[in-house]
């Protein structure tokens, strides 16, 4: 028995050494999140709810759109792993990932990669500086959007119908698993290479969103946790 206990403690210690977490959100509160709103669009609602002594993020939309963005910037190459657990109440029937009129999702997770003017072309710098002059900050260089689509898609990477530098990855789809918790684990470097055919910028932020402003539908979803971490291969 003593040997067994020592072995368990040793393995637990090794696991801790091999994994390092930079962001770990269990949604006890929204202290580390700020709202991301869009002009002339009613914002969605985000709140903390508690069930069976656990807390969750509840995202609710009614012909609305907005998101919440985490305050921490992380190094994608140092912390390339993203994991979360989500649950939807319903899909949006009129959703269509290929059209602007259907670009709505009951839940999605964004990874927004930071624009670096030192590594940009002259044309990109002019474009991004013009946007910064209007909004007070640079827009993301590029974005991965992990979506819960309303239907199965043979193509797992879809370019946003609005802008080319947002690539949507179908992480979950359909209503089969509605009202059921689903855990997702992704490697951001691998997914970025698949989506953009090149390596990602170094710095990024995560965000969560529910939107139904295009389809004019309503629904709500939950997120149990989300974390950004590294796993060293030893």
Q: How do the strands and helices of this protein lay out in sequence?
A:
Blueprint: H1 2-18, E1 19-25, E2 33-36, E3 45-51, E4 54-62, E5 65-70, E6 74-75, E7 81-88, E8 105-113, H2 122-135, E9 142-149, E10 157-159, E11 166-173, E12 182-187, H3 188-196, E13 203-211, E14 218-231
Parallel strand pairs: 9-11
Antiparallel strand pairs: 1-14, 2-5, 3-4, 4-14, 5-13, 6-13, 7-12, 7-14, 8-9, 8-13, 10-11
Short précis:
The protein is of the alpha+beta class and 234 residues long. Helix content is 17%, strand content 43%.
Account of the 3D structure:
Helices cover 17% and strands 43% of the residues. The chain is α+β, with helices and mostly antiparallel strands. Strand 3 (45-51) and strand 4 (54-62) form a beta hairpin. The chain is globular. It starts with a helix and ends with a strand.
* Number of alpha- plus pi-helical segments: 3
Integer-rounded radius of gyration:
19 Å
Terminal CA distance reads 28 Å
Overall spatial form: globular
What sequence of helices (H) and strands (E) makes up the elements? Answer: HEEEEEEEEHEEEEHEE
- Assembly state of the chains shown: single chain
User: Approximately how much beta-strand content do the residues carry?
Assistant: 35-45%
Task: Summarize the amount of helix as a percent range.
Answer: 10-25%
Total beta strands: 14
Tell me the structural class: alpha+beta
Taking all residues together, what is the mean pLDDT?
A: 86
Low-confidence runs (pLDDT<50, min 5 residues)?
A: 1-17, 120-138
The description of the largest β-sheet is: 8 strands, mixed
């Amino acid at each position: 028995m003593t040997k067994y206990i020592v072995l368990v403690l040793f393995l637990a210690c090794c696991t801790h050494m091999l994994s390092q977490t930079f962001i770990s959100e269990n949604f006890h509160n929204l202290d580390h999140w700020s709202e991301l709103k869009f002009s002339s669009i009613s914002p969605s609602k985000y709140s903390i709810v508690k069930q069976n002594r656990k807390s969750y993020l509840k995202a609710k939309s009614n012909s609305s759109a907005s998101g919440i963005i985490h305050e921490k910037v992380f190094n994608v190459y140092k912390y390339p792993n993203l994991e979360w657990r989500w649950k939807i109440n319903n899909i949006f029937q009129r959703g269509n990932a290929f059209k602007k009129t259907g670009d709505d999702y009951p839940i999605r997770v964004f990874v927004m990669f930071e624009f670096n003017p030192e590594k940009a072309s002259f044309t990109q710098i002019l474009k991004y500086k013009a946007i910064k002059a209007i909004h007070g900050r640079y827009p993301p260089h590029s974005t991965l959007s992990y979506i819960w689509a309303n239907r199965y898609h043979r193509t797992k990477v879809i370019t946003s119908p609005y802008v080319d530098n947002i690539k949507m990855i179908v992480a979950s789809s359909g209503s089969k698993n509605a009202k059921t918790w689903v855990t997702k684990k992704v490697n951001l470097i691998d997914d970025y290479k698949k989506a953009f055919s090149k390596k990602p910028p170094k710095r990024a932020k995560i965000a969560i969103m529910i939107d139904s402003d295009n389809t004019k539908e309503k629904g709500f979803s939950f997120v149990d946790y989300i974390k950004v971490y590294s796993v060293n291969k030893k």
